[in-house]
Amino acid sequence: MSPSVLTNPRAERVKAVRALGRRSARQRAERFVVDGPQGVREVLRFAPKTVTDLYVDGAASQRHGPLVDLARDANIQLHQCSSAVMAALVDTQHPQGLVAVCRPVDVSVEDALADESGFVVLLAHVRDPGNAGTVIRSADAAGARAVILSSASVDLYNPKVVRSTAGSLWHLPIALGGDVTELIAACRERGRRVLAADGAGTTLLPDADLSGAHAWLMGNEAWGLNEASRAQADDVVRVPIHGHAESLNLALAATVCMYASADRSSVKRTS
Amino acid sequence: MSPSVLTNPRAERVKAVRALGRRSARQRAERFVVDGPQGVREVLRFAPKTVTDLYVDGAASQRHGPLVDLARDANIQLHQCSSAVMAALVDTQHPQGLVAVCRPVDVSVEDALADESGFVVLLAHVRDPGNAGTVIRSADAAGARAVILSSASVDLYNPKVVRSTAGSLWHLPIALGGDVTELIAACRERGRRVLAADGAGTTLLPDADLSGAHAWLMGNEAWGLNEASRAQADDVVRVPIHGHAESLNLALAATVCMYASADRSSVKRTS
After folding, report:
1. Burial, B45: exposed, middle or buried (Cβ in 10 Å; 0-12, 13-18, 19+)?
2. ipTM, 2 dp
Protein backbone atom coordinates (compact mmCIF):
# COMPACT_ATOMS: atom_id res chain seq x y z
CA MET A 1 0.00 0.00 0.00
CA SER A 2 1.27 3.45 -0.82
CA PRO A 3 2.31 5.61 2.16
CA SER A 4 -0.55 8.06 1.48
CA VAL A 5 -3.17 5.43 2.37
CA LEU A 6 -4.63 5.66 5.89
CA THR A 7 -4.17 2.25 7.49
CA ASN A 8 -4.40 2.93 11.24
CA PRO A 9 -7.98 2.60 12.52
CA ARG A 10 -6.88 4.20 15.80
CA ALA A 11 -5.51 7.38 14.23
CA GLU A 12 -6.85 10.62 15.74
CA ARG A 13 -8.36 11.65 12.40
CA VAL A 14 -10.31 8.40 12.20
CA LYS A 15 -11.54 8.70 15.77
CA ALA A 16 -12.65 12.27 15.10
CA VAL A 17 -14.84 11.16 12.19
CA ARG A 18 -16.31 8.26 14.14
CA ALA A 19 -17.13 10.62 17.01
CA LEU A 20 -19.49 12.44 14.62
CA GLY A 21 -21.92 9.56 15.21
CA ARG A 22 -22.72 11.41 18.47
CA ARG A 23 -24.85 14.56 18.48
CA SER A 24 -22.60 16.40 20.95
CA ALA A 25 -19.53 15.87 18.73
CA ARG A 26 -21.46 16.99 15.65
CA GLN A 27 -22.51 20.19 17.36
CA ARG A 28 -19.00 20.90 18.63
CA ALA A 29 -17.34 20.27 15.26
CA GLU A 30 -20.19 21.66 13.13
CA ARG A 31 -19.73 18.66 10.90
CA PHE A 32 -21.67 15.50 10.12
CA VAL A 33 -21.04 12.32 8.18
CA VAL A 34 -22.55 11.03 4.95
CA ASP A 35 -22.06 7.32 4.42
CA GLY A 36 -22.40 5.42 1.14
CA PRO A 37 -22.50 6.25 -2.56
CA GLN A 38 -26.10 7.51 -2.76
CA GLY A 39 -25.70 10.22 -0.14
CA VAL A 40 -22.19 11.13 -1.29
CA ARG A 41 -23.38 11.47 -4.88
CA GLU A 42 -26.25 13.77 -3.88
CA VAL A 43 -24.17 16.04 -1.66
CA LEU A 44 -21.53 16.31 -4.40
CA ARG A 45 -24.23 17.19 -6.94
CA PHE A 46 -26.29 19.61 -4.84
CA ALA A 47 -23.96 21.07 -2.20
CA PRO A 48 -20.34 20.27 -3.08
CA LYS A 49 -19.02 23.27 -1.18
CA THR A 50 -20.29 21.82 2.10
CA VAL A 51 -18.06 18.73 1.76
CA THR A 52 -14.74 19.09 3.55
CA ASP A 53 -13.29 15.56 3.33
CA LEU A 54 -13.99 12.35 1.42
CA TYR A 55 -12.73 8.97 2.65
CA VAL A 56 -12.56 6.21 0.03
CA ASP A 57 -11.35 2.62 0.25
CA GLY A 58 -9.71 0.74 -2.60
CA ALA A 59 -12.83 -1.07 -3.85
CA ALA A 60 -14.94 2.10 -3.86
CA SER A 61 -12.19 4.05 -5.69
CA GLN A 62 -12.59 1.61 -8.53
CA ARG A 63 -16.36 1.21 -8.41
CA HIS A 64 -17.18 4.89 -7.98
CA GLY A 65 -14.41 6.53 -10.04
CA PRO A 66 -16.63 9.33 -11.39
CA LEU A 67 -17.71 10.31 -7.87
CA VAL A 68 -14.11 10.47 -6.72
CA ASP A 69 -13.23 12.61 -9.77
CA LEU A 70 -16.11 14.93 -8.95
CA ALA A 71 -14.76 15.36 -5.43
CA ARG A 72 -11.24 16.00 -6.75
CA ASP A 73 -12.55 18.67 -9.15
CA ALA A 74 -14.36 20.35 -6.24
CA ASN A 75 -11.08 20.57 -4.30
CA ILE A 76 -12.38 18.30 -1.56
CA GLN A 77 -9.67 16.71 0.55
CA LEU A 78 -9.44 13.05 -0.51
CA HIS A 79 -8.26 10.30 1.83
CA GLN A 80 -7.57 6.84 0.50
CA CYS A 81 -8.01 4.36 3.32
CA SER A 82 -7.85 0.67 4.12
CA SER A 83 -11.01 -1.32 4.70
CA ALA A 84 -10.11 -1.51 8.42
CA VAL A 85 -10.08 2.30 8.57
CA MET A 86 -13.35 2.44 6.62
CA ALA A 87 -14.97 0.10 9.16
CA ALA A 88 -13.67 2.32 11.98
CA LEU A 89 -14.98 5.57 10.45
CA VAL A 90 -18.68 4.78 10.75
CA ASP A 91 -20.86 2.57 12.89
CA THR A 92 -22.62 0.69 10.08
CA GLN A 93 -22.82 -3.03 9.56
CA HIS A 94 -21.87 -2.92 5.90
CA PRO A 95 -19.61 0.08 5.16
CA GLN A 96 -19.90 0.96 1.49
CA GLY A 97 -16.44 2.41 1.05
CA LEU A 98 -17.32 6.11 0.78
CA VAL A 99 -17.65 8.51 3.71
CA ALA A 100 -17.93 12.28 3.37
CA VAL A 101 -17.53 14.80 6.18
CA CYS A 102 -19.83 17.75 5.57
CA ARG A 103 -20.94 21.08 6.95
CA PRO A 104 -24.58 21.49 8.01
CA VAL A 105 -27.05 22.59 5.33
CA ASP A 106 -30.06 23.68 7.36
CA VAL A 107 -31.49 27.11 6.66
CA SER A 108 -33.31 29.54 8.96
CA VAL A 109 -37.05 29.15 9.50
CA GLU A 110 -37.43 32.50 7.76
CA ASP A 111 -35.66 31.22 4.65
CA ALA A 112 -37.62 27.98 4.70
CA LEU A 113 -40.83 30.02 4.61
CA ALA A 114 -39.65 32.54 2.01
CA ASP A 115 -41.48 30.75 -0.82
CA GLU A 116 -45.09 31.36 0.12
CA SER A 117 -46.68 28.97 -2.41
CA GLY A 118 -47.53 25.26 -2.25
CA PHE A 119 -47.02 23.39 0.99
CA VAL A 120 -44.37 22.90 3.66
CA VAL A 121 -44.04 20.22 6.33
CA LEU A 122 -43.59 20.77 10.07
CA LEU A 123 -42.29 17.79 12.02
CA ALA A 124 -43.29 18.09 15.68
CA HIS A 125 -41.53 15.78 18.13
CA VAL A 126 -40.72 13.15 15.50
CA ARG A 127 -38.24 10.95 17.35
CA ASP A 128 -37.56 7.98 15.08
CA PRO A 129 -34.63 8.65 12.73
CA GLY A 130 -35.98 6.40 9.97
CA ASN A 131 -39.37 8.09 10.05
CA ALA A 132 -37.89 11.60 9.97
CA GLY A 133 -35.62 10.75 7.04
CA THR A 134 -38.38 8.99 5.13
CA VAL A 135 -40.75 11.94 5.56
CA ILE A 136 -38.04 14.28 4.22
CA ARG A 137 -37.61 11.98 1.20
CA SER A 138 -41.38 11.93 0.60
CA ALA A 139 -41.62 15.70 1.06
CA ASP A 140 -39.01 16.08 -1.67
CA ALA A 141 -40.85 13.65 -3.98
CA ALA A 142 -44.24 15.29 -3.37
CA GLY A 143 -42.82 18.75 -4.08
CA ALA A 144 -42.86 20.35 -0.62
CA ARG A 145 -41.30 23.82 -0.53
CA ALA A 146 -39.48 23.08 2.73
CA VAL A 147 -39.37 20.89 5.83
CA ILE A 148 -39.05 22.32 9.34
CA LEU A 149 -38.18 20.17 12.35
CA SER A 150 -39.22 21.33 15.83
CA SER A 151 -36.50 21.47 18.45
CA ALA A 152 -37.91 18.39 20.19
CA SER A 153 -37.40 16.26 17.06
CA VAL A 154 -34.56 13.86 16.31
CA ASP A 155 -31.31 15.49 15.13
CA LEU A 156 -31.37 16.06 11.37
CA TYR A 157 -27.70 15.02 11.16
CA ASN A 158 -28.14 11.70 12.94
CA PRO A 159 -26.55 9.17 10.52
CA LYS A 160 -29.79 7.18 10.29
CA VAL A 161 -31.78 10.29 9.39
CA VAL A 162 -29.20 11.25 6.76
CA ARG A 163 -29.30 7.75 5.25
CA SER A 164 -33.12 7.54 5.26
CA THR A 165 -33.43 10.80 3.33
CA ALA A 166 -31.76 8.99 0.39
CA GLY A 167 -30.18 12.29 -0.69
CA SER A 168 -33.27 14.47 -0.22
CA LEU A 169 -31.45 16.24 2.64
CA TRP A 170 -29.81 18.37 -0.08
CA HIS A 171 -32.82 18.73 -2.38
CA LEU A 172 -35.06 21.16 -0.53
CA PRO A 173 -34.68 23.75 2.24
CA ILE A 174 -34.72 22.18 5.71
CA ALA A 175 -34.85 24.30 8.85
CA LEU A 176 -34.31 23.44 12.51
CA GLY A 177 -36.99 25.36 14.34
CA GLY A 178 -37.91 26.14 17.91
CA ASP A 179 -41.05 24.93 19.56
CA VAL A 180 -44.14 23.88 17.67
CA THR A 181 -46.25 26.82 18.81
CA GLU A 182 -43.77 29.30 17.32
CA LEU A 183 -43.54 27.34 14.08
CA ILE A 184 -47.31 27.23 13.63
CA ALA A 185 -47.45 30.98 14.27
CA ALA A 186 -44.63 31.62 11.77
CA CYS A 187 -46.51 29.67 9.06
CA ARG A 188 -49.74 31.53 9.68
CA GLU A 189 -48.03 34.91 9.64
CA ARG A 190 -46.87 34.08 6.14
CA GLY A 191 -50.36 33.24 4.98
CA ARG A 192 -50.19 29.47 5.28
CA ARG A 193 -53.14 27.51 6.64
CA VAL A 194 -51.87 24.93 9.11
CA LEU A 195 -53.33 21.44 8.73
CA ALA A 196 -52.58 19.07 11.57
CA ALA A 197 -52.48 15.44 10.38
CA ASP A 198 -53.91 13.32 13.14
CA GLY A 199 -55.89 10.11 13.43
CA ALA A 200 -58.30 12.01 15.70
CA GLY A 201 -59.04 14.65 13.05
CA THR A 202 -62.62 15.44 12.14
CA THR A 203 -61.95 16.42 8.51
CA LEU A 204 -61.27 13.54 6.13
CA LEU A 205 -58.32 14.09 3.80
CA PRO A 206 -60.47 14.04 0.61
CA ASP A 207 -62.58 16.87 2.10
CA ALA A 208 -59.66 19.01 3.32
CA ASP A 209 -59.12 22.41 1.73
CA LEU A 210 -55.70 22.13 0.07
CA SER A 211 -56.29 24.90 -2.45
CA GLY A 212 -54.13 27.65 -0.95
CA ALA A 213 -50.66 27.73 0.58
CA HIS A 214 -50.56 25.44 3.58
CA ALA A 215 -48.37 23.65 6.10
CA TRP A 216 -48.78 20.02 7.12
CA LEU A 217 -48.10 19.52 10.83
CA MET A 218 -47.04 15.93 11.58
CA GLY A 219 -46.78 14.67 15.15
CA ASN A 220 -44.87 12.06 17.05
CA GLU A 221 -45.07 8.44 15.83
CA ALA A 222 -46.34 7.09 19.14
CA TRP A 223 -48.67 9.69 20.57
CA GLY A 224 -49.54 11.96 17.63
CA LEU A 225 -50.00 15.67 18.22
CA ASN A 226 -50.82 17.18 21.58
CA GLU A 227 -54.06 18.97 22.29
CA ALA A 228 -52.47 22.43 22.16
CA SER A 229 -51.03 21.88 18.68
CA ARG A 230 -54.31 20.51 17.36
CA ALA A 231 -56.20 23.47 18.83
CA GLN A 232 -53.78 25.94 17.25
CA ALA A 233 -54.10 24.42 13.76
CA ASP A 234 -56.66 25.72 11.25
CA ASP A 235 -57.93 22.20 10.67
CA VAL A 236 -57.22 18.69 11.94
CA VAL A 237 -57.23 16.20 9.08
CA ARG A 238 -57.24 12.43 9.15
CA VAL A 239 -56.41 9.95 6.42
CA PRO A 240 -59.54 7.80 5.98
CA ILE A 241 -59.14 4.21 7.14
CA HIS A 242 -61.40 2.09 4.97
CA GLY A 243 -60.67 -1.40 6.30
CA HIS A 244 -60.03 -2.66 9.82
CA ALA A 245 -56.51 -1.25 10.18
CA GLU A 246 -56.07 0.85 13.28
CA SER A 247 -53.90 3.45 11.57
CA LEU A 248 -51.11 4.05 9.10
CA ASN A 249 -47.60 4.67 10.39
CA LEU A 250 -46.30 8.23 10.43
CA ALA A 251 -44.30 8.11 7.20
CA LEU A 252 -47.16 6.51 5.26
CA ALA A 253 -49.80 8.91 6.57
CA ALA A 254 -47.55 11.91 5.91
CA THR A 255 -46.85 10.72 2.37
CA VAL A 256 -50.54 10.23 1.58
CA CYS A 257 -51.30 13.74 2.90
CA MET A 258 -48.48 15.36 0.93
CA TYR A 259 -49.45 13.59 -2.30
CA ALA A 260 -53.02 14.77 -1.83
CA SER A 261 -51.61 18.31 -1.76
CA ALA A 262 -49.46 17.65 -4.82
CA ASP A 263 -52.25 15.89 -6.69
CA ARG A 264 -54.86 18.57 -6.20
CA SER A 265 -52.54 21.38 -7.17
CA SER A 266 -51.30 19.44 -10.24
CA VAL A 267 -54.89 18.71 -11.26
CA LYS A 268 -55.50 22.45 -11.12
CA ARG A 269 -52.34 23.20 -13.05
CA THR A 270 -53.23 20.90 -15.94
CA SER A 271 -56.93 21.75 -16.19
CA MET B 1 -43.96 -20.91 40.84
CA SER B 2 -46.86 -23.25 40.38
CA PRO B 3 -46.10 -26.62 38.74
CA SER B 4 -48.21 -25.71 35.70
CA VAL B 5 -45.82 -22.94 34.70
CA LEU B 6 -43.36 -23.81 31.93
CA THR B 7 -39.89 -23.01 33.23
CA ASN B 8 -37.54 -25.06 31.05
CA PRO B 9 -36.39 -23.12 27.96
CA ARG B 10 -34.99 -26.37 26.52
CA ALA B 11 -38.29 -28.29 26.66
CA GLU B 12 -39.34 -29.93 23.38
CA ARG B 13 -42.53 -27.86 23.25
CA VAL B 14 -40.52 -24.63 23.52
CA LYS B 15 -38.07 -25.74 20.84
CA ALA B 16 -40.93 -26.64 18.54
CA VAL B 17 -42.38 -23.12 18.77
CA ARG B 18 -39.01 -21.49 18.25
CA ALA B 19 -38.44 -23.66 15.17
CA LEU B 20 -41.46 -21.92 13.59
CA GLY B 21 -39.12 -19.00 12.95
CA ARG B 22 -37.91 -21.07 9.96
CA ARG B 23 -40.02 -21.40 6.83
CA SER B 24 -39.41 -25.15 6.48
CA ALA B 25 -40.68 -25.82 10.00
CA ARG B 26 -43.73 -23.63 9.42
CA GLN B 27 -44.60 -25.54 6.28
CA ARG B 28 -44.11 -28.91 7.95
CA ALA B 29 -46.18 -28.03 11.01
CA GLU B 30 -48.71 -25.84 9.16
CA ARG B 31 -48.39 -23.39 12.01
CA PHE B 32 -46.87 -19.95 12.50
CA VAL B 33 -46.18 -17.65 15.41
CA VAL B 34 -47.75 -14.33 16.37
CA ASP B 35 -45.67 -12.34 18.82
CA GLY B 36 -46.83 -9.43 20.98
CA PRO B 37 -50.15 -8.01 22.16
CA GLN B 38 -51.16 -6.20 18.95
CA GLY B 39 -51.02 -9.27 16.72
CA VAL B 40 -52.44 -11.56 19.39
CA ARG B 41 -55.36 -9.18 19.96
CA GLU B 42 -56.18 -9.03 16.25
CA VAL B 43 -56.02 -12.78 15.66
CA LEU B 44 -58.22 -13.35 18.73
CA ARG B 45 -60.72 -10.78 17.42
CA PHE B 46 -60.78 -11.78 13.76
CA ALA B 47 -59.77 -15.46 13.58
CA PRO B 48 -59.88 -17.00 17.07
CA LYS B 49 -60.45 -20.49 15.69
CA THR B 50 -57.05 -20.45 13.99
CA VAL B 51 -55.23 -20.05 17.34
CA THR B 52 -54.13 -23.36 18.82
CA ASP B 53 -51.92 -22.25 21.74
CA LEU B 54 -51.20 -19.07 23.66
CA TYR B 55 -48.03 -18.64 25.73
CA VAL B 56 -48.12 -15.93 28.41
CA ASP B 57 -45.57 -14.85 30.97
CA GLY B 58 -46.43 -13.49 34.41
CA ALA B 59 -46.17 -9.80 33.56
CA ALA B 60 -48.29 -10.14 30.41
CA SER B 61 -50.95 -12.14 32.31
CA GLN B 62 -51.44 -9.13 34.52
CA ARG B 63 -51.11 -6.45 31.86
CA HIS B 64 -53.25 -8.16 29.23
CA GLY B 65 -55.85 -9.90 31.41
CA PRO B 66 -58.75 -9.29 28.97
CA LEU B 67 -56.79 -10.86 26.10
CA VAL B 68 -56.02 -13.93 28.17
CA ASP B 69 -59.69 -14.20 29.14
CA LEU B 70 -60.65 -13.96 25.47
CA ALA B 71 -58.32 -16.84 24.68
CA ARG B 72 -59.71 -18.90 27.57
CA ASP B 73 -63.27 -18.31 26.36
CA ALA B 74 -62.25 -19.48 22.88
CA ASN B 75 -60.93 -22.76 24.33
CA ILE B 76 -57.38 -21.98 23.25
CA GLN B 77 -54.73 -23.93 25.11
CA LEU B 78 -53.08 -21.53 27.57
CA HIS B 79 -49.49 -21.96 28.74
CA GLN B 80 -48.18 -19.86 31.59
CA CYS B 81 -44.41 -19.57 31.21
CA SER B 82 -41.36 -18.01 32.80
CA SER B 83 -39.62 -15.06 31.18
CA ALA B 84 -36.73 -17.39 30.26
CA VAL B 85 -39.15 -19.61 28.34
CA MET B 86 -40.72 -16.53 26.71
CA ALA B 87 -37.28 -15.40 25.52
CA ALA B 88 -36.65 -18.89 24.12
CA LEU B 89 -39.95 -19.07 22.23
CA VAL B 90 -39.22 -16.31 19.73
CA ASP B 91 -36.17 -14.68 18.26
CA THR B 92 -37.01 -11.05 19.13
CA GLN B 93 -34.92 -8.58 21.07
CA HIS B 94 -37.73 -7.50 23.35
CA PRO B 95 -40.26 -10.30 23.89
CA GLN B 96 -43.58 -8.80 24.90
CA GLY B 97 -44.85 -11.70 26.94
CA LEU B 98 -47.53 -13.03 24.57
CA VAL B 99 -46.96 -15.60 21.83
CA ALA B 100 -49.73 -17.35 19.89
CA VAL B 101 -49.30 -20.40 17.68
CA CYS B 102 -51.74 -20.19 14.78
CA ARG B 103 -52.93 -21.99 11.68
CA PRO B 104 -52.46 -20.29 8.30
CA VAL B 105 -55.20 -17.94 7.15
CA ASP B 106 -54.43 -17.54 3.45
CA VAL B 107 -57.26 -18.14 1.01
CA SER B 108 -57.18 -19.43 -2.58
CA VAL B 109 -56.55 -16.98 -5.42
CA GLU B 110 -60.09 -17.72 -6.57
CA ASP B 111 -61.53 -16.68 -3.22
CA ALA B 112 -59.33 -13.58 -3.10
CA LEU B 113 -60.78 -12.53 -6.45
CA ALA B 114 -64.39 -13.45 -5.66
CA ASP B 115 -65.33 -9.85 -4.86
CA GLU B 116 -65.06 -8.23 -8.27
CA SER B 117 -65.36 -4.59 -7.13
CA GLY B 118 -62.79 -2.04 -6.01
CA PHE B 119 -59.11 -2.92 -6.15
CA VAL B 120 -56.78 -5.73 -5.14
CA VAL B 121 -52.99 -5.76 -4.76
CA LEU B 122 -50.58 -8.21 -6.39
CA LEU B 123 -47.12 -8.38 -4.81
CA ALA B 124 -44.60 -9.67 -7.35
CA HIS B 125 -41.23 -10.76 -5.99
CA VAL B 126 -41.42 -8.54 -2.92
CA ARG B 127 -38.56 -9.87 -0.81
CA ASP B 128 -38.25 -7.55 2.17
CA PRO B 129 -40.45 -8.71 5.08
CA GLY B 130 -41.02 -5.20 6.44
CA ASN B 131 -42.12 -3.92 3.03
CA ALA B 132 -44.49 -6.84 2.43
CA GLY B 133 -46.09 -6.44 5.85
CA THR B 134 -46.37 -2.67 5.52
CA VAL B 135 -48.04 -2.95 2.10
CA ILE B 136 -50.57 -5.40 3.57
CA ARG B 137 -51.29 -2.93 6.39
CA SER B 138 -51.72 -0.09 3.87
CA ALA B 139 -53.90 -2.25 1.63
CA ASP B 140 -56.17 -2.86 4.61
CA ALA B 141 -56.29 0.85 5.47
CA ALA B 142 -56.96 1.89 1.87
CA GLY B 143 -59.77 -0.63 1.54
CA ALA B 144 -58.25 -3.20 -0.84
CA ARG B 145 -60.50 -6.21 -1.43
CA ALA B 146 -57.55 -8.64 -1.17
CA VAL B 147 -53.78 -9.01 -1.39
CA ILE B 148 -52.11 -11.75 -3.44
CA LEU B 149 -48.43 -12.61 -3.09
CA SER B 150 -46.63 -14.25 -5.99
CA SER B 151 -44.74 -17.46 -5.22
CA ALA B 152 -41.40 -15.64 -5.51
CA SER B 153 -42.31 -13.25 -2.68
CA VAL B 154 -41.25 -13.42 0.94
CA ASP B 155 -43.18 -15.95 3.09
CA LEU B 156 -46.37 -14.37 4.45
CA TYR B 157 -45.82 -16.16 7.77
CA ASN B 158 -42.28 -14.89 8.29
CA PRO B 159 -42.37 -13.36 11.81
CA LYS B 160 -41.25 -9.95 10.50
CA VAL B 161 -44.01 -9.92 7.88
CA VAL B 162 -46.59 -10.89 10.49
CA ARG B 163 -45.39 -8.13 12.84
CA SER B 164 -45.27 -5.46 10.10
CA THR B 165 -48.89 -6.10 9.12
CA ALA B 166 -49.86 -4.77 12.58
CA GLY B 167 -52.85 -7.14 12.61
CA SER B 168 -53.98 -6.51 9.03
CA LEU B 169 -53.00 -10.12 8.23
CA TRP B 170 -56.43 -11.07 9.62
CA HIS B 171 -58.42 -8.14 8.24
CA LEU B 172 -58.67 -8.91 4.53
CA PRO B 173 -58.32 -11.97 2.29
CA ILE B 174 -54.70 -12.76 1.47
CA ALA B 175 -53.77 -15.41 -1.09
CA LEU B 176 -50.48 -17.10 -1.90
CA GLY B 177 -50.39 -17.28 -5.67
CA GLY B 178 -48.27 -18.85 -8.34
CA ASP B 179 -46.25 -16.90 -10.82
CA VAL B 180 -46.97 -13.31 -11.75
CA THR B 181 -48.12 -14.11 -15.28
CA GLU B 182 -50.85 -16.41 -13.99
CA LEU B 183 -51.96 -13.88 -11.40
CA ILE B 184 -52.25 -11.09 -13.95
CA ALA B 185 -54.28 -13.40 -16.20
CA ALA B 186 -56.55 -14.41 -13.30
CA CYS B 187 -57.28 -10.76 -12.50
CA ARG B 188 -58.09 -9.93 -16.10
CA GLU B 189 -60.36 -12.94 -16.49
CA ARG B 190 -62.42 -11.53 -13.64
CA GLY B 191 -62.73 -8.14 -15.30
CA ARG B 192 -59.99 -6.30 -13.44
CA ARG B 193 -57.69 -3.91 -15.27
CA VAL B 194 -54.12 -4.55 -14.18
CA LEU B 195 -52.10 -1.43 -13.36
CA ALA B 196 -48.39 -1.99 -12.90
CA ALA B 197 -46.87 0.55 -10.50
CA ASP B 198 -43.40 1.32 -11.76
CA GLY B 199 -41.06 4.31 -11.77
CA ALA B 200 -40.65 3.73 -15.52
CA GLY B 201 -44.39 4.05 -16.19
CA THR B 202 -45.65 6.47 -18.84
CA THR B 203 -49.00 7.24 -17.20
CA LEU B 204 -48.86 9.56 -14.20
CA LEU B 205 -50.94 8.43 -11.24
CA PRO B 206 -53.30 11.46 -11.38
CA ASP B 207 -54.07 10.55 -15.01
CA ALA B 208 -54.57 6.80 -14.45
CA ASP B 209 -58.02 5.33 -15.00
CA LEU B 210 -59.04 4.04 -11.59
CA SER B 211 -62.77 4.11 -12.25
CA GLY B 212 -63.46 0.39 -12.69
CA ALA B 213 -62.35 -2.72 -10.82
CA HIS B 214 -58.57 -2.97 -10.96
CA ALA B 215 -55.49 -4.68 -9.58
CA TRP B 216 -52.30 -2.88 -8.55
CA LEU B 217 -49.21 -4.88 -9.46
CA MET B 218 -46.25 -3.95 -7.23
CA GLY B 219 -42.74 -5.16 -8.01
CA ASN B 220 -39.58 -5.92 -6.15
CA GLU B 221 -38.08 -3.15 -3.97
CA ALA B 222 -34.74 -3.17 -5.73
CA TRP B 223 -35.43 -3.78 -9.39
CA GLY B 224 -39.15 -3.03 -9.83
CA LEU B 225 -41.16 -5.09 -12.29
CA ASN B 226 -39.66 -7.04 -15.15
CA GLU B 227 -40.34 -6.22 -18.77
CA ALA B 228 -42.73 -9.16 -19.24
CA SER B 229 -44.95 -8.10 -16.34
CA ARG B 230 -45.04 -4.49 -17.49
CA ALA B 231 -45.94 -5.61 -21.03
CA GLN B 232 -48.73 -7.82 -19.76
CA ALA B 233 -50.34 -5.06 -17.68
CA ASP B 234 -53.09 -2.84 -19.08
CA ASP B 235 -51.19 0.27 -18.04
CA VAL B 236 -47.90 1.13 -16.33
CA VAL B 237 -48.38 3.93 -13.83
CA ARG B 238 -45.83 6.02 -12.01
CA VAL B 239 -46.20 8.19 -8.94
CA PRO B 240 -45.14 11.68 -10.03
CA ILE B 241 -41.87 12.85 -8.50
CA HIS B 242 -42.08 16.62 -8.17
CA GLY B 243 -38.76 17.42 -6.51
CA HIS B 244 -35.30 15.96 -6.98
CA ALA B 245 -35.95 12.64 -5.21
CA GLU B 246 -35.03 9.64 -7.31
CA SER B 247 -38.02 7.58 -6.20
CA LEU B 248 -40.24 6.63 -3.29
CA ASN B 249 -39.67 3.33 -1.56
CA LEU B 250 -41.99 0.43 -2.38
CA ALA B 251 -44.28 0.76 0.62
CA LEU B 252 -44.70 4.51 0.15
CA ALA B 253 -45.34 4.29 -3.60
CA ALA B 254 -47.81 1.43 -3.09
CA THR B 255 -49.65 3.37 -0.40
CA VAL B 256 -49.94 6.49 -2.54
CA CYS B 257 -51.32 4.39 -5.44
CA MET B 258 -53.83 2.57 -3.24
CA TYR B 259 -55.05 5.79 -1.66
CA ALA B 260 -55.53 7.29 -5.10
CA SER B 261 -57.82 4.33 -5.84
CA ALA B 262 -59.64 4.76 -2.53
CA ASP B 263 -59.91 8.52 -2.88
CA ARG B 264 -61.35 8.53 -6.38
CA SER B 265 -63.91 5.87 -5.61
CA SER B 266 -64.91 7.60 -2.36
CA VAL B 267 -65.26 10.90 -4.22
CA LYS B 268 -67.65 9.09 -6.54
CA ARG B 269 -69.50 7.50 -3.67
CA THR B 270 -70.16 10.77 -1.89
CA SER B 271 -70.97 12.92 -4.94
Report:
1. middle
2. 0.90
